[in-house]
UniProtKB/TrEMBL annotation:
Residues 107-172 form the Outer membrane protein assembly factor BamE domain. InterPro entries: BamE-like, BamE_dom. Transmembrane segments: none annotated. Coiled coil: none annotated. This is Outer membrane protein assembly factor BamE domain-containing protein.
Amino acid sequence: MSLKLPIAAMLAACIALTACDDQQSERAVQKIKEFFNAVKPDALLLKNMTPGVTTEAQIREQMGKPETERTYTDGSKRFEYPRGPQGLNTYMVDIDRDGKLQSITQVLTAANFGKIRIGMSEDEVRRLLGKPGEIAVFPLKPETVWSWKWREGGVTEEGIFNVHFDQNRKVYTTSRSDVVRGR
């Protein structure tokens, strides 16, 4: 990937910042950080993250704002970090009640897909797999299909895992699709 686009974006942001007041500057800097965290390679995103050592503040600084943040009754937390639009990885970051990193799990895996059961709610699926890369609504059927692109391996390397919800927003089946390129 060429560095010209990120450098041009940074230059444009710097020029825009010169005409802003302090509050606008802070918001602009935050937007730039969010953008770079979204496109940061996974190796940099996860670098030096050590369970039992890395703090919640360090996680937020390095990984950015999570897509969702859940706090459980015991005080532990789970942050969701989907990578890019239709990215191949979604990380769930678990933080213990003392505010230390417990684990980081890449959840778009065959093992996790195998945990999807008929009758699960949309929220249960979201907690397991994270934000879908695409949502398609078919009102005449009626069904809603959530899809995630993932590293399947094999001949095509990438595949799409689909979860089909009925009109009651409950899982009634799952399916697999090919990634179509060159349209």
